[in-house]
């Protein structure tokens, strides 16, 4: 049986980025069931990230805002945004992986079993052994399913196409707007050039991995009405899933990307999260491989490096607000009002770059921009104890840090002294 240091199953953004990094020091096998370098997604990101991760040559369009619309409000989220040519991104990573000596094969991962010092895996073409298997097979990972690992899952379900001959008033606008239908469907527009655009519908759903095909008919209808002359170049579809797993590693197996629920609640989105985290992940995996610490407990520690516990607490709260806006009959009016109230700080939500000060500001502005009766409705009953506990914890922390700094506390900060919050670093994510 052929042996490797690391086997990576799945060559989406997670598998490819991990392969590029780990290929430098280890003998890596990368398995992909489709033609390697293929994707059904489309990605917006930010100029600083494109530069930092060497993806400038894959940038198709640069814009300095994202436009969000609701029935009565418009928000221009100011930021240095980029829209990638998704095929170019994949080709760049594929070339880098090959240059770093990664063995890339078009094979379907079928199953695995633990063997002495590692895992034996079975594909449709052969069997291989490695001390470490990285599961980067996305939301339908066979390993996650086999071990029944999903604890909670919510999905943005997406269906659309890359279009040619589009006719937009502003063809270079990165934009999201609601269709104002009962299902609360949204439109996402990622321009690629003056004549080509990635155009898709998406819908937020709870407790699902999503069925993108269910949006197909609606997408065709919207396309006929809004872009009658457009020619379809390729289908874009999938789900962006957020939630939590019961375990983030098994003996000799670790998850990376959407198989490991890397997409945060609320926003940030999966591709951007992988960009931000892949070097951290690879460095921690590399250390574990070199020290032969590949049991579940040690690998859980590697996985924890991807999940800043403070940020996860923020995400759950912001995620609860987002879910409310998605389902609300006011069709995102409250959400876009809140983005407007956040002003130039709104971009931290989309970037998933939130800290305690940001959350405090977000909290105050939410209460100021939306009636308290609505704010209360935003918190789903099953999340209420967690969220109240967190609000208490954040409020206390904010107050304490201000007291320590000797600075006057901002007026209007809602506080719930006396209620128990989780201790710092404590989370429900790993139970
Ligand atoms: C239309 C659309 C727009 C999006 N827009 C954005 C955006 O603007 N910004 C953003 O941050 N995110 C965005 N996303 C989300 C982002 O694309 C995903 O979060 C990201 O692709 C997840 O990467 P991954 O590598 O974990 O999983 P995937 O991309 O799903 O890759 C998994 C890979 O594993 C392969 N695989 C699966 N099973 C097997 C098997 N048994 N054997 C071998 N190979 C297997 C699959 O073929 C696939 O190539 C968008 C998604 C879609 C669909």
Descriptive tags:
single chain, 431 residues, alpha/beta, FAD/NAD(P)-binding domain, D-Amino Acid Oxidase, Chain A, domain 2, 3 domains, 8-stranded mixed beta sheet, 13 helices, 18 strands, disordered C terminus, binds flavin-adenine dinucleotide
Instruction: Give the rounded overall mean pLDDT.
Output: 86
- Bound compounds: flavin-adenine dinucleotide
**Which CATH class of the largest domain?**
Alpha Beta
User: What's the end-to-end separation, in Å?
Assistant: 37 Å
Structural class: alpha/beta
Output the CATH topology of the largest domain. Answer: FAD/NAD(P)-binding domain
CATH homologous superfamily descriptor of the largest domain: FAD/NAD(P)-binding domain
Task: Name the poorly predicted regions.
Answer: 408-431
Helix content range of the residues, please?
25-40%
What is the topology, as strand order, of the major beta sheet?
A: 4-6-5-13-14-15-12-16
The CATH architecture of the largest domain can be named as 3-Layer(bba) Sandwich
Count of alpha/pi helices: 13
User: Main sheet?
Assistant: 8 strands, mixed
Task: Compute the number of strand runs.
Answer: 18
- Strand-residue proportion: 25-35%
Radius of gyration: 22 Å
Backbone shape? globular
Domain count: the total is 3
